[in-house]
Amino acid sequence: xxxxxxxxxxxxxxxxxxxxxxxxxxxxxxxxxxxxxxxxxxxxxxxxxxxxxxxxxxxxxxxxxxxxxxxxxxxxxxxxxxxxxxxxxxxxxxxxxxxxxxxxxxxxxxxxxxxxxxxxxxxxxxxxxxxxxxxxxxxxxxxxxxxxxxxxxxxxxxxxxxxxxxxxxxxxxxxxxxxxxxxxxxxxxxxxxxxxxxxxxxxxxxxxxxxxxxxxxxxxxxxxx
Length: 225
Prior knowledge:
It is built from 5 helices and 12 strands. It has helices at 20-36, 102-119, 197-206, 208-216, 220-223, and strands at residues 2-6, 9-13, 41-46, 51-54, 69-72, 79-82, 86-92, 125-127, 130-136, 142-153, 156-164, 184-185. Strands 1, 2, 3, 7, 8, 9, 10, 11 and 12 form a 9-stranded mixed beta sheet that branches. Strand 10 (142-153) and strand 11 (156-164) form a beta hairpin.
């Protein structure tokens, strides 16, 4: 694991899988410390062992086959899968230092992922009424390649984003991902693009300035499109 502080934000990059419960406990502690002013903000890039996480809107019937551990996450949204081959970014930022607009924060997260995917030749987009990042699968159908799920406590953010680099996509069949049953999931590997976690991290970090700038003075009109 590497950790670098830059412009009041600590960047933590974990190369070994981090158990979800451990990461959740760490995030919760750090969230409180950021609010209290005793710790720097944090952006943490990592992977988890296979796990299903339940958001605050999770519906029991959407847990189809609990073959992996199921953890209540406290974030918004429904059921999500995390596992090897999927890169996760936990974003712990103090919005009281920026614009206090959760919707614009989510919009900026989506834009960060969309721009980074574009650097690997993948066109992706937002879809009205469906939080997350969408692209065209090899079948020609629309499919989800990235998920967004956040929680904000005392204006400090938690959780964040995940992008499918090369996970076992069959693992998603144990849930209805994010409550959307009629659309599938895909990955960079399925699209024929091999991206190592280190390469993804470098590209995401290279785009982080745009993401952080979008939080300073977000456009109300842009955030609601």
